[in-house]
Amino acid sequence: MTGVAQQSFKIEISSRPENITLVEQFVDDLKESLQISDDLYGHLLICLTEAVNNSIIHGNQSDSSKKVLISASKEDGRLSFVVKDEGNGFDYNSLPDPTDPANLHKLTGRGVFLMKQLSDLLIFSQGGSQVEMQFKA
Question: Taking a C-beta distance cutoff of 8 angstroms, is the pair 69, 75 a contact?
């Protein structure tokens, strides 16, 4: 029999910006448990904190009674992360281009762009209230 058993990890947080530290600790724990390289760790940390920030602020409207669920799994050399919020989603196909000269000086709007650049696969589903990011491990 070939293949490695799947390993799964989950964390659920309330939609409070200060809970990003819990996500950072989650990624730190995964780095150790799954022996993640420093380069990949940096990409994971940026992507997950961006996705969770978006879920807290835009998805759940910073409503601390709403939750953000983060799950991670590793199987066959691929790390997969799913971030799900309780919001109404968004139109992920019509985001402004942060590299457009008109948007370069804006303080927001780069999160999804960074997630696309740093992950190997980015999939929005459930109307934009869920994002999956995959990385080659």
Answer: no
- Token code pair at residue 117: 């650049």
Alpha-carbon distance values, 83 to 3, 41, 56, 104, 137 (Å): 26, 17, 11, 27, 19
3-state SS, residue 26: helix
The CATH number of residue 112's host domain is: 3.30.565.10
pTM: 0.89
**108 has pLDDT over 70:** no
What is the spatial order of strands in the sheet that 78-84 belongs to? 7-14, 67-75, 78-84, 130-136, 121-125
In a domain, 130, yes or no: yes
3-state secondary structure of 9: strand
How many domains does the chain divide into?
A: 1
Coil vs helix vs strand at 124: strand
pLDDT tens by residue, 34-67:
999 999 999 999 999 999 999 999 999 999 999 9
- 123 pLDDT more than 90: yes
Going by the DSSP 8-state scheme, the letter that residue 128 receives in this structure is G
